[in-house]
Amino acid sequence: MSSPSRIPDGTPSPQDNARARTTLARKWSYRLLGAVAIPLGREDLDAELRIRLDALCSMLHEEPFVTASIEAAGADLATLGHLGRFGLRCTTEVLGKGLLALPEFQPVERYAERIALAMGALGAGFTAANAESVLAQQESMQRSLLKAVRDANWNLRESQARFDEVVTSSTNGVLIVDLEGRLLQVNAATGQILGRTSEELTGVPLLDLIEPTYVEVLRDAMADLAAGTTERFRQSQRLLRDDGESAPVTLAASLLRGADDQPMHFVVVIEDGTELALLQSELRRQSLHDVLTGLPNRQFFTTQLEIALRKADPEHGITVFHLDLDAFGMLRDSFGGRVVERYLQHVTGRLKTLLAGEKVMIARFGGDEFGVLLENTATTPGIDAIMKSINDDLVLEPTFVDGHGVSASMSAGVVHRPGTDSEPLDVLRSAERSLRRAKKGRRGQWELYHAGQDAEELRDDALAVEMPAAWENGEISVRYRPVVRLADGAVSGVEAEFHWDSPESGVLTHDRCAYLAEQTGLILPLGGWLLKVAGGQSAWWRQRGQLDRTLAVRLTAHQSSDADLVSRVVEVLDQIGVPADKLMISMPGGVLSVADAADNLAVLARMGVLTAIDDFGMGPLDFGLLASELPVRAVRVAPGLVASRSPYVAALLPLLREQGVAVAVEGIDSAEQAEWWRAAGADFATGDHFGVAQEPGQFLETLEPR
């Protein structure tokens, strides 16, 4: 019986030839990327080499067969990147063997000579083009060297003029001193420091301008400099002014040598000590304060927090607020940077006014985040009263900036009366964690730090950072649970889930694993791995006639928006062999408002993949997703609604069925629950009542009739 992929006379079909060429082009690309430097990614290089391979195959089929066009193809190959002899050798090895194995060049005896001649022509063309490229590079280098010499001569003259300009206009005193110690050149700044003109100072011995008690120190330093003992020195000095007063300065000197490495003269730079001290003081202030608002910055706040912790009143203690403006991004995007900066200055002023009666330090941590360190007394208002006054002031009394009425609430994480032995950074981290909890789905709220709650988050963080190693060590596996048709109890599909058997924390379920991996970004490689493993298992079952059911895979928000999601699914469909209509991909409903996620869903649906929405809450926004023409085949009811068995939810299920959307529920734990949802009109269900997630072999055993 003939193969369906061939034409009846035994000639390979176009599909056979295309697949064989694609495989050879990918092998060629893989070998080249491992041997030479090519400025293309793997996918781009695959496509480029496929085009060149198609052209080469066409040349081999031409009648009469000539090698001139193949030599041209070899020359063009040299433009692909820095291939060199390694790239040529790799190319001839791959193509020399690969072309002989292509179905279209069978029988081999008919095409062997052509392919051998083609490899020679390809190499000749490549070698000639490569040689021309090297000659062109050498010629370009010679031109560049000649230009560099001309530029160097020009730059020398220009640098001399620039040096003279810098010396003349510098605010520091600059002196050119000969080896005997006399001033050869003096700029205007030196005259201003000493109260004399540059002409009056020229020719004067440098040591005559130094206070007598400092002369010996400078003389010894310059002697060491002239002898080559030191390369430069810097010291505090006092110069004699024309009015008899002394000027505190910092003096730095170095020795300038000629082309023969012999000393020529000294270069001395004088910095006015008074101005430098003022500048250093200002720099210290700026390093500890925010430029926009003038408030202390995080570094200064942390230092003061450490002091306050040690000196806190034993009875009342301190309170630390980590404040954050809500909807700050919307303000910035709507009104621009100028309005936002002025609004931050307004917020700064309001915080100072509202807390004016307290012993308080207010800092700006950056962006829209502020810190408040409150040293409590018997009359200090409660945290709720403070937050209410802040939000009432900012929200109910908007300020006008450039004609825009602007207002925004503030959320806060609060640490109240931390122990005196607490570390400042630990207190700030606790306040920041509490702020994140306060902002979850809310605005204008505050959250008080609780040690137990913080410890739970720390455990989550620890698990999240341990997860990559656990995956590497094989602690994380893929397990499978049945998807059951509620109408008759038949298994209609299989859902793939994560399973982490942690030695320290015990078994972690799929949802827990997905949540932890989402926090660190591990979900992308880990989720791709689950898709590939589950796809391979599904194909294995199907090939052996053991199980031919739909494979369901749930994605997180991060996965749904992943730019590589479609290519990951294509790999499962094409390379692993899972039929598109046997794969169901579901995405959280909340992420489908993001364009990338919606586009991914639409592309998958066009490929024939079954698509679904997770966490469907039965609200107007959820039904709005269905009205937006997203290609959705099914929805999965939000877990919080499954146990409620709400008549409201049951009344809405027919609306979904009218739109041709199947309804699935997860977490069914009892026969009573399953019967309620069946009667309500749900189509499919998962849960421990129908079977827990198991390894592949155990999963099949549960499906066998008993």
From TrEMBL:
Domain GGDEF per the UniProt entry, residue ranges: 316-451
PAC domain mapped to chain residues: 233-285
Domain EAL, chain residue ranges per copy: 460-706
Gene3D superfamilies tied to this protein: 3.30.70.270, EAL domain, PAS domain
Coiled-coil residues: none
Domain of life: Bacteria
Database matches in SUPFAM superfamilies: EAL domain-like, Nucleotide cyclase, PYP-like sensor domain (PAS domain)
Domain PAS stretches: 159-229
Protein name: EAL domain-containing protein
Lineage: Bacteria, Bacillati, Actinomycetota, Actinomycetes, Pseudonocardiales
